[in-house]
Amino acid sequence: MSATTVPADSLWDRVRGFTPPPRYLPVLATLALLVGMFSVGGVRYEGFSDPQVVLSLFIDNAFLIVLAVGMTFVILTGGIDLSVGSVVALSTMIAAKTLQLGWPPYLSMAAVLATGTLLGLLMGLLIHYFDIQPFIATLAGLFLARGLTYLISVESISISDSTFTNLAFKTVTFGDYYLRWTAIIALAVVAIGAYVLARTRFGRTVYAIGGNESSAMLMGLRVAFTKVGVYVISGFCASLGGLLFSFYILSGNSLHAIGMELDAIAAVVIGGTLLTGGRGYVVGSLLGVMVLGMIKTLISFDGTLSSYWIRIITGALLLAFVVVQRFASRRRT
Amino acid sequence: MTQMDVTPAAQAATPVVAGVDPVIEMRDISIGFGAVQALDAVSVRLYPGEVHALMGENGAGKSTLIKALTGVYSIDSGRIVVGGVEREFGSPAAAQEAGISTVYQEVNLLPNLTVAENMLLGREPRRFGAINVRAMNRRARATLEGLGIDIDPTSELGEHPIAVQQLVAIARAVDVEARVLILDEPTSSLDADEVAKLFEVMRGLRDQGVAIVFVSHFLDQVYEIADRMTILRNGKLVEERMVADTTQLELVKLMIGRELEVLDRIDRKVSARTADESGSPVLKAIGVGRKGSLEATDLELYDGEVIGLAGLLGSGRTELARLLFGADSADTGEVVIGSERRRLRSPRHAIDRKVAFSSEDRKAEGVVGDLTVADNMLLALQASRGWLRPIPQTTRTRLVEQYLEALDIRPRDGAALMRNLSGGNQQKVLLARWLITDPEILILDEPTRGIDIGAKAQIQAKVAELAAQGMAVVFISAELEEVLRLSDRLVVMRDRRKIEERPNDDVSVGDVLEIIAGESREEEGSRG
Amino acid sequence: MAESPTTSVSGLQRLLRHQLVWPVLALVVLLLVNVAAKPGFFDIRMQDGHLYGNLIDIVRNSAPVLLVALGMTLVIATRGIDLSVGAIAAISAAVACTRIVGAADEGALTTAVMACTYALAVCILLGAWNGFLVSVLGIQPIIATLILMVAGRGISMAITDGQITTVHNNTFSDLATGYVLTLPVAFLIALGVCALTAVLTRRTALGMLIEAVGINPEASRLAGVRSRTIIWTVYAFSGLCAGIAGLVIAANTNSVNANSLGLWIELDAILAVVIGGTSLAGGRFSLMGTLIGALFIATLARTVNNIGIPSDLNYLFKAIVVIAVCLLQSPKVRSVFRVRRPGATGSSGSVGSAGSATPTLAKAGRS
């Protein structure tokens, strides 16, 4: 790495010879896919290349973005969280019910966030201290959250509180384009998540656990705190996502968000995060959500394809990413 | 039978540097696990600025001693004195804080994080609660440069070969300002150049006053780098010697030594064995080797012959055995069985050609604990028949009873759960598993390890009997007496290659030790 | 020299130690709760040559979950999992129904038979696909089967073109609502598959080999067990079972709604397997346990109804059950960080393996 007497590269030379570090390749692949899909759409469909299409993607998927951030933390440690969809439903129900009971809106929101966080804490404790597999523990969380939702109310409750509706429609406009506050919150969560993962000891310990948990312990890292912590974060994100979803849908219903955890997991995997843990970025998960959203948008623009193609294409994408990940990691070992 | 009865030394024989206190003193450390006494009143002294080798065969107590020093195990009796102060370590973190750092054989770092992070995680420089990446990289770079290691601290650890990862592990210890650095089998996966680099770094640290504990079974390397050594055997301290004052032959004798055992009295069964070496070999390995575990090796097996693989720990005996069976796939060479010549890719191939292999790690690679003794016994036979053809019940009962009896397995109950049997009986069940497949070639890796004397004798007698009936047997054992007692031909291995092969005509343990040690003396000049 | 520990134990103690005790006990308790709430719970009456009653309903309703759980049991025994069974069930129903509707004679017996056979063949292929991903490509079972779980719903909807397809075929309907010898056909089918599985695993060597692979894959490999074939087989079988379940579910309503058929049945199936005593970590499995587990889940659904709680609170009870089962199955003793006597604390009772005392580094007591 010592300096040699070679004439300084021109900018063009450096751009041309630029090879990204191999660890960023998965995210770049997802980005390339996204760009590719956008280009295809822009060429094929009228009005697709309008930047508002991209901005609307953020708006319509804000809640999923937040969910995916929380899920990324969990998956990075090699775990999984099946409860997030049910926590979203629970969140909408708590919000709706407390508002119906006359609670001040911000107190209502606080209750929602507290519940999700508490559930996450419970699951994290079960997983780390009782050695229960994450799959089963969060499965229990799924049942628990869904059950609590039904407990609160079997029927749908609508939200008409003005604070909620205002927040739902609050917009930032720049020129001809607009972005809702919900989307901004989601992007802020991504930014915070990325910062925590990259620049804090907690975040690096998350990667460490995913890389080799026993080594992390031998190195003296706070493994227990971090392992429980990621489930707390996931629970918080699930409830925050639930709040954003309740802004979106303005009702509490036990049938909401069925299967949303699968969307979150798919987004994380497509975003380049390994299910075995230790590798991945929240930015990748953001892009994964965008890819999923883009599929839906493409299909709706097309008009001729039925909506079930969304699932088939999502499955195919998952397959492609997983197989490539498998061969990449085989070569590494 | 030579009677070399080496009594364990009570005190170190040689003083080191006058006037300097040891940085670590372990006094009369004893640790027991159930019935096994892993360490029995062992005392070790480490001085600053020395490389101290910890020597001993499998089960000698080396790793137990290390784990006691690094806070993984608790001590039953004895004391650890660090810098004059008596200490007790409750965890690896506590030992680290006391200035004792360990680099394990498997490196135990995080391949998915950067070099700098691996060095500094947990202690990284921070600014307002966030990691100051630039400062961290700077500090890492400085430490690496100080050790003469030229790598980019921002690169991912996993991109580097094991040798470099080890150096990073050492760099982490240096950054912690360790006073004692323990290296546990650091050179197992390294080539000559990498070893040279490692030693350069070690010498640098030694000159700075760090005490380095070097655990290795590569005798050459010990002689190259170590100043003093402590030899353990069967959990007891044998002696503490200066490397310069000890020949390799003396060292090997101290390590292997001899105990007066009932076993020594059992005479070799001199039965009429027709080692049919005039015919064609029933198995022939040509240039079989695997990167990092065995150099290209040739071997021929004949009917009715017992081949003993002798050598120290890490000499490549198990690796060779596994390659002969296809448990690991070879990188080079082929195995010829009968008329077929191929590179064995899976145990299935070998088993179909009548080869059987009993692994040295019966717990991880042999025992199916939750199944019955009968199921365990019949596993290999059933596997070769395929799942559609279960072994008829009458045959099952007959075979199980036959072998329960023949190998004296207790309890005599085919329905007992495998995990409830003692080690010796489990080993016998595993032996039965392979005998039931009616093999022509039987490879036994450490079949008598960790089992009681009675069972040992039974297994050895069985091996002799099988050879007499025409089976070709490969027998591996760390106990040279056993190998010599049973073998018709001896293959001596060292440092992952075969160094000599000869018929077992009145070869003594001393002769074998000389071969193992003596070889190196010739080689010292030519080896890097 | 260890004697087998069970020989000196009294009969009652041995009964209590039997692994099926807990699931059976749980089922019995649940049934008693029902009787307490509605004293006529156990009544069975004969009408039109069929048996009617709560118990009969439970038994019939348990059929789909039982079928799926049977395949799931074998998959879990090999240390795997199959999340795609719901999607496969939907595909199976979609294929069968569209074939029946599109046939020349929609109501004919042969039509039904052909359609079902075709559907099941497709399901076996789908299961084999999962097996391929897991055993040949080495992909983790969770993600491998997740792919089909996601894509499969889309495929089933594509087959029915997004419509709820209704069929009119008496033979087909009989699958769910018919009775043979006074017992519901659905349950007989499930029982039949259960018996078939038992024969397949216990009368051949398949069961033992599956368990060996699940308990110690490396030892099995070294003993020459063809684990790849075995893993392939169990996933294909799981697909088949899911397919049969799909047919039964569709037959119940004489229609298939590809969106909702079999939704979340995989979770119920996993629950049934776990309640029945088979460990998620693989190894020994119990088909009888799975049967009891499936009955338990069906009874749970009934109980919630009977006691007058909204049926959707099912979820809450399931959560409690899952947590209870897992706490019981998890290692109780949290080892202190420093290992003192690894040989003595071995909870599996391994005696005399002191020679290979390889204590594992215990989890940190403090973070």
Written overview of the protein:
The complex is a heterotrimer of chains A (333), B (528) and C (367). Chain A is mainly alpha-helical and 333 residues long. Chain A is 72% helix and 4% strand. Chain A has one domain: ABC transporter involved in vitamin B12 uptake, BtuC, CATH 1.10.3470. A two-stranded antiparallel ribbon of chain A has the order 1-4. A two-stranded antiparallel sheet of chain A has the order 2-3. In chain A, strand 2 and strand 3 form a beta hairpin. Chain B has 3 domains: 155 residues, 3-Layer(aba) Sandwich (Rossmann fold), CATH 3.40.50; 184 residues, 3-Layer(aba) Sandwich (Rossmann fold); 77 residues, no CATH class. Helices cover 34% and strands 23% of the residues of chain B. Chain B has a 6-stranded mixed β-sheet, with helices on both faces. A 6-stranded mixed β-sheet of chain B has the order 18-19-20-15-21-22, with helices on both faces. Chain B is globular and about 75 Å long. Chain B starts with 23 loop residues before the first strand and ends in a 5-residue tail after the last helix. Chain C is mainly alpha-helical and 367 residues long. Chain C has one domain: ABC transporter involved in vitamin B12 uptake, BtuC (Orthogonal Bundle). Chain C is 64% helix and 4% strand. In chain C, the strands form 3 sheets. A two-stranded antiparallel ribbon of chain C has the order 1-2. A two-stranded antiparallel ribbon of chain C has the order 3-6. Chain C has a two-stranded antiparallel ribbon with strand order 4-5. In chain C, strand 1 and strand 2 form a beta hairpin. The radius of gyration of chain C is 23 Å and the shape is globular. Chains in contact: A-B, A-C, B-C. The interface between B and C is large, with 63 and 49 residues.
